[in-house]
Specification:
Blueprint: E1 14-19, H1 37-41, E2 47-52, H2 54-57, E3 67-72, E4 75-80, H3 89-98, H4 100-103, E5 109-111, E6 123-127, E7 130-135, H5 138-146, E8 152-154, H6 161-183, H7 187-196, H8 198-204, H9 206-211
Parallel strand pairs: 1-2, 1-5, 3-6, 5-8
Antiparallel strand pairs: 3-4, 6-7
Helix pairs in contact: 3-5
Length: 212
C-alpha cells in the first residue's frame, strides 16, 4: 500500500465492488477461482469488498461452457465458445442494471481482466476466428457507462505501482466526495474539499488549479 495511505485502515472501510473469483470464490467456468494475494492480504485491510459474478447471476452453471465476445453485424455479442446460439449479451446487460442500487454505494470496483463479462479493456473480441484485444466486458461496460466517475481497475494492472497508487488515491477522494454530497454541498464545504486535495490537483494540472 502506498506510504501516503498507511494508517488509514483504522477508518471505516470503504466499500469496493469486486469480481467474486478474485476473492477465491469458485465461480469460474472451470469451477476454479483467480484469488489475488495482494487484494486479499493487503487491500482487504482498507476496503470492504462486495463480491459479484454476473455470469453466475444470470444462471450460467458451475462449471459451464466458456463465453466470449464476438462481432456480429457490427454489434458486440457475448456467446458460447462452442454453442454459437448461446447468446447471453442481454442477460448480462440486465444483470448489471439490476445491481445499480448497490453500485451507487460503492467508491470503486476491481474487475477480472480478460473476462468477456467483467473485463475493463483489451478483452478478446472475435471477428470470425481472429480475435483482437479491443473488447470490453458486457457487465463492465454497463457499469462504467452508468457510473463514469467511479474508480475502476483490473486486478492485473494493480501490479503496476503507479496504476495501483492512482487507483487507491481515486477511491479515497471519490469516497470523500460522496460523503460530502450526502451531507449537502455548500460553498464552505466545497472550499474545504478543494483545499484538502489541492496538491493532488496540482500534480495533474497547475494551470487548471489556478482557474479553479
Amino acid at each position: 500500500i502506498p506510504l501516503s495511505f498507511k494508517g488509514l485502515a483504522m477508518e471505516n472501510k470503504i466499500s469496493i465492488g469486486i469480481s467474486s473469483c478474485l476473492l477465491g470464490h469458485k465461480v469460474r467456468f472451470d469451477s476454479g477461482h483467480k484469488q489475488n494475494s495482494y487484494i486479499n492480504n493487503t487491500l482487504s485491510e482498507y476496503f470492504d469488498f462486495v463480491p459479484f459474478c454476473p455470469e453466475v447471476d444470470i444462471g450460467l452453471g458451475i462449471p459451464r461452457e466458456a463465453i466470449r465476445l464476438v462481432l456480429v453485424d457490427e454489434q458486440v455479442h457475448c456467446v458460447g465458445s462452442k454453442t454459437a446460439d448461446l447468446d447471453v449479451t442481454q442477460q448480462l446487460k440486465e444483470s448489471a442494471k439490476q445491481q445499480h442500487h448497490w453500485h451507487q454505494n460503492l467508491s470503486g470496483y476491481i474487475l477480472k481482466k480478460d473476462s468477456p463479462s467483467c473485463g475493463m479493456e483489451r478483452v478478446r473480441l472475435y471477428k470470425g476466428n481472429m480475435p483482437d484485444r479491443i473488447g470490453v466486458g458486457i457487465y463492465a461496460r454497463e457499469l462504467m457507462g452508468k457510473f463514469p466517475h467511479l474508480p475502476v481497475e483490473e486486478e492485473g494492472r494493480l501490479g503496476d505501482a503507479v496504476l495501483r497508487e492512482n487507483f487507491i488515491q481515486r477511491v479515497y477522494v471519490y469516497s470523500r466526495w460522496k460523503k460530502m454530497c450526502e451531507v449537502g454541498i455548500t460553498a464552505g464545504e466545497l472550499q474545504k474539499f478543494h483545499a484538502a486535495h489541492k496538491y493532488i490537483y496540482m500534480s495533474h494540472d497547475q494551470l487548471l488549479v489556478k482557474e479553479l
